[in-house]
Design goal:
It is built from four helices and no strands. The protein is rod-shaped and about 160 Å long. The longest helix is centred in the middle third of the chain and has 109 residues. It is an all-alpha fold and 189 residues long.
Length: 189
């Protein structure tokens, strides 16, 4: 049992040390063997430290690689998030522009309808006024009726019997013309 212990702990060291003493044949072989064993122990300790350092460096390298991978993933996620934010912001801007365009079209439509109502009211008032003025203005000349400079001074104005459009069909015609102009300017999107 003791020989197994000595073989296990000192076997390689003593074998190599005695071989070195036999090869070198020093004057004091005991002192030489003792110094050689100290040197052997120092070399073994240094080798163990070097091995431990190598293991530690390998471990640190693996940690650095893992950290680098995590950083790359974080950068990729951040870039993806920024792209999503930009896309969302652009979408919101597009929606806001679309909303503003729709509001503008609605205001234009309301203005158009208001103008149409006013023109229909003016036409209705004009017809009422023209019916009431027919009797009063029949004796007046065109120059008296018109406020334009250089209007001809005719004694009377004759109206020819022309096929007149009904009021409703005139309003439809005016409405269609204004709607065509509206679509031309604002178009359908």
């Amino acid at each position: 049992m003791e020989s197994a212990y000595l073989q296990k702990t000192l076997g390689t060291c003593l074998t190599q040390g005695l071989a070195e003493v036999a090869r070198m044949r020093p004057v004091d072989p005991i002192e030489y063997l003792a110094l050689w064993i100290y040197k052997y122990k120092k070399n073994v300790t240094m080798e163990q430290q070097r091995q431990e350092e190598m293991v530690q460096l390998e471990h640190e390298r693996e940690l650095a690689l893992m950290e680098q991978e995590v950083m790359e993933r974080l950068k990729a996620e951040e870039l993806l998030f920024q792209q999503q934010q930009l896309a969302f912001q652009l979408e919101m801007e597009m929606q806001e522009k679309e909303r503003q365009r729709i509001e503008e079209l609605q205001r234009a439509q309301e203005q158009f309808e208001k103008e149409l109502r006013m023109s229909m009211e003016n036409m209705a008032k004009g017809e009422d006024a023209s019916h009431g003025e027919d009797g009063a203005n029949s004796a007046k000349t065109l120059a008296e009726i018109s406020d334009r400079y250089g209007a001809p001074n005719l004694s009377r104005v004759e109206e020819l019997d022309e096929p007149m459009l009904s009021d409703v069909s005139m309003l439809r015609k005016v409405f269609c013309e204004k709607q065509i102009i509206f679509l031309f300017y604002f178009g359908k999107a």
